[in-house]
Amino acid sequence: MEVAILGLPNSGKTTVFNALTRGSAEVVPYASGASGQSGPNVGVARVHDPRIDLLVSLFSPKRTVLSEVTYSEVPATPEGLGKTQSISGLYLNSIQRADALLVVVRAFENESVAHAGDGLDPVRDAETMLYELAFADLEILDRRLARLADGLKGAKAAERDPIAREQALIERLKDGLESGTHIRDQPLARDDAHFLEGFQLLTAKPLMVLLNLGEDEAAEGAARPESLRPLLDERSARCAAFCGKLEMELSQMEPADEQEFRASLGLSESGLDLMLRMTHEVTDVITFFTGNTNEVRAWAVPRGTSAVNAAGKIHSDMSRGFIRAEVVAYDDMERCGTLAEARRQGVLRQEGKGYIVKDGDIVNILFNV
Question: Which CATH class is domain 304-367?
Fold first, then answer.
């Protein structure tokens, strides 16, 4: 899964990127029209799901593999972003590749780092970024409508109905965007949603908004996002807050030192853990596990994934030669303690291709190719 980090100039995108990836990308205040960053900063965060510890104790594997989230901080904000000139070019392409978007909004005072707008106003800046995402999609939809209109001129009778249906769909989406409703919040039939995947529309992607706090407000993180909630539909977007600078500094510490210092500040959850949890929520991703004496691994898949498709996530041969899946729920395994006891109690089940994998399932795929 890839999450694109974006925001207005000097919002602290790179600082947040470093905090989430334990990275060391250079943090330089943005100067209009100039930047040393020629491409995206890319880093990986491993999801430390405590449930995997049970399988490690059960199998004593040679290696343990956690699921991962890739964070991509897109190149320096182009001239004009935040001034309703829209997102385009390579900047747009970088964002379109992502599975979800993380918008960083500045909520810290720092006289040495100029603000892109007229003073500090997180709600205004968040609205600006949401407008920019909408403007980018409107340009894509307008171009598509123009091509459809051209195609309709020379279309045969049998081709006219599909073109007209697509025109009606895009006009409806465009009207919704212009009235302030992002595409993720507009009602879509399953076939229409699948068709739109090819457009990679930004407002169709799961969205997270992060308030980047000052160090003196770090302990207030849980309360601060309330100001942003009226801007977001919580069915498809999330908001949170932490101090990117502090989280970046903590991420560079040894784990024991980090935990001790975090406790002294009254911070119960790291910014990384908060964002990983929020990312899984907004993308509606679940985790299942596989395990043997060679390897224990966590796998992240969309909710609603079938057993045969989960098998394909592990290896294409498993999907192609799928016979059945042996499945035990995490809670049952925790209670039973061993696979033998889970089998004795009848909670180790045999499931077919159509079984929908549940969060926490421990799965063994039987296949033949």
Answer: alpha beta
Q: Does domain 2-46+67-119+206-283 have CATH number 3.40.50.300?
A: yes
Cβ-contact 207, 237 below 8 angstroms: yes
Sheet holding 207-213, edge to edge: 41-46, 68-73, 2-7, 100-107, 207-213, 237-242
HEC readout, 77-142: CCCCCCCCCCCCHHHHHHHHCCCEEEEEEEECCCCCCCCCCCCCCHHHHHHHHHHHHHHHHHHHHH
Block mean pLDDT (10 aa), the chain, length 369: 92 93 72 56 91 94 95 70 60 88 91 71 91 93 93 84 92 94 92 91 94 82 72 80 92 89 85 91 95 96 97 96 97 94 95 97 95
Structural contact between residues 71 and 47, judged by C-beta atoms closer than 8 angstroms: no
Q: At what angle do helices 244-251 and 255-264 cross, to 10 degrees?
A: 140
Q: What is the number of alpha carbons within 13 Å of residue 328 lying toward its C-beta?
A: 24
Assign domain 132-202 to its CATH superfamily.
Answer: Obg-related GTPase Ych/YyaF, coiled-coil domain (1.10.150.300)
Could you tell me if 302 and 264 are in contact, meaning their C-beta atoms sit under 8 angstroms apart? no
Predicted TM-score (pTM) above 0.90: no
How many CB atoms are located within 10 Å of the residue 49 CB? 16
